[in-house]
Amino acid sequence: MDTSPPPAAPGWPFKRYFWISVAFAAVLGALVLRVGFMPDDFIWLGVWDHVPPPAPLGNTPLDVYRTATGIPEHTLRLAQVGVFPWWVEPTVRVAFFRPLGSLFYGLDHLLYNRVAVAYQVHSVLWYVGIVVLAGVLLKRVLPTAVAGVAMFLFAIWGSHSAVLGWLSYRSVVMSLLFGVLGIYFHVKWREEKRTGSLVGALVSFALALLSGETMVILSPYVLAYEAFSGPGQAKDKLKGLIPFGVLMAGYFALYRALGYGAGGSDMYLDAVGTPVEWFKAMLTRVPAAIAGLTLNAPPDFIFDASMVPLFTVLGAVGLTLFALLVWGVWPRLEAAERRTVGWMLTGAFVSTWLANSAFAGSRTLIVPSLGMAVGLAVVLRHAWQGRARTFRAGAVLAGAALLALVHVVGAPYIWWQTTEAYAQADALMGRVQLRYQEALDETKLPEQRLVVLNAPNGIIGIYGSVRWWSTGMPLPKAWWVLSYSLNEQKVTRTGPNSLELSLPKGGHFLDSVEERIHRAARHPVAQGQEFDMKGLTVRIEEMDGQFPTRISYTFDVPLEDPSLKLVQWHNKKVVPFVPPAVGGPPSALNVR
């Protein structure tokens, strides 16, 4: 009996795949038009509007992504006025080299001021551009049908909505676009030996690096291409990497010399500066990312530490399923196709580790999804072509159908869900602004120091004052938020000008992801440690392991002094806080 696979049926021309992919990218991308500005965006808007800040900021109009300089004097001054929380690590640095990202974002502000939909249209155009260039690259390195399916999968990939909908992430989209173009030219140069293609590759890579660090995350694809598909012997492959290597070395030297990078935070980790902490974090972040890449499970959920074990299991299941499906179709692949799948999946896997130097989330998946789209397209195409009455072929087809259901049918829902969550976040911050307007006397505020005892969550704790400042509202002399804890808190008056916060029902202060943005767990506070905010002294009174359970706050005037404005969040409103009497029963804080 002849058991050879049936000849492949004629497929669609690539042009059809191309235009379907572009159309879907535009339609799904249009969902972000209902999203307004997100929390980070208000920092940039305030900088471009030249709103006087309460203390000198690291951000400048053409360097808006330098949020924390890492210089203790700068950090402490911002903490004293409440831009950073009182527990901030003085050396925390969140500074990203994105001059082109800043320039194009600033151009939007020049043209459209604060019309968010115009900014979003601009971002959608960049995204459609990525899809087009991804299709051009894939058509060069893959058979037509597989390239078309891969382009379509990449265009609709659900997690891309997390990057596209948040305007501050446009630098990611820009960097990826130029990076994909650079890979195309690099492949063309290596296979056709045309000097013009080498120039095109280096210019594209340089533009990608000027747009953002995403090009660094994309770089494993270049290395993997040479390892799997680069023409010639090993020495030829190494020579082929020299121009790219020189460019990257110059970039890293400039990056460090200008003071860019991240440190002191658990949100962003430095693989070079803190390799041990980085590797430990990857043991939880990478499995969650793999769960997102293979099963479309949103890795954002591991912001809740209790979800980490589940996503570790999902990552292992997704990786096993995907590996078995690739193994199942492997005999059907031609040698050239195998090499391309090899370098694309290798690039995807390594870039997953680099991408998760930022805290795991759907936004970290866009670079790895390029290679995963290729792997998934190969599985879907060959599983369908190889369907036959054998257990192996049937199992592969069933597994491929499951992944198709998750990645194709589920993609529009993820786009809608993500943009809906972003729209709700924008609306929430608008309500936060209104609640503060209701609670604060804007005529008295410039002579007061605002004390917010509790924030209903870390995002409001961090960005409530940012939006207030960005919109040009009168600023207090300081905007101190005492706690981001979501646990029920007890307030005890310990003196005329002092109070304590404790957690009567258990839990810890400074242990949430939002709190560790400004102070990594590897920089723990100590019992008895004090923080001087120039008018407010904070002292860690009790610890339970690594994190505080009781904290005291001592002001330079009595709590009833009119120079202090004490408020609390209660039942979704900002209401005055009346301090208990000295020696009297404590008050309860519960944001819910």
Describe this protein's structure:
With 592 residues, the protein is of the alpha+beta class. The protein has helices at residues 14-29, 39-48, 72-80, 99-112, 116-141, 144-156, 160-164, 170-192, 195-211, 214-228, 234-257, 275-295, 308-329, 335-355, 366-385, 391-409, 411-439, 458-470; strands at 66-69, 93-95, 261-263, 449-452, 478-481, 489-495, 498-502, 530-532, 536-544, 547-555, 564-570, 573-576, 587-589. The strands form three sheets. It has a six-stranded antiparallel sheet with strand order 8-9-10-7-6-13, with no helix packed on it. β8 (530-532) and β9 form a beta hairpin. The longest helix has 29 residues, at 411-439. The protein is elongated. The N and C termini lie far apart (71 Å).
Furnish the topology, listing elements before pairings.
Blueprint: H1 14-29, H2 39-48, E1 66-69, H3 72-80, E2 93-95, H4 99-112, H5 116-141, H6 144-156, H7 160-164, H8 170-192, H9 195-211, H10 214-228, H11 234-257, E3 261-263, H12 275-295, H13 308-329, H14 335-355, H15 366-385, H16 391-409, H17 411-439, E4 449-452, H18 458-470, E5 478-481, E6 489-495, E7 498-502, E8 530-532, E9 536-544, E10 547-555, E11 564-570, E12 573-576, E13 587-589
Helix pairs in contact: 1-5, 1-6, 2-18, 4-5, 4-8, 5-6, 5-8, 6-15, 8-9, 8-10, 9-11, 10-11, 10-14, 12-13, 13-15, 13-16, 14-15, 15-16, 17-18
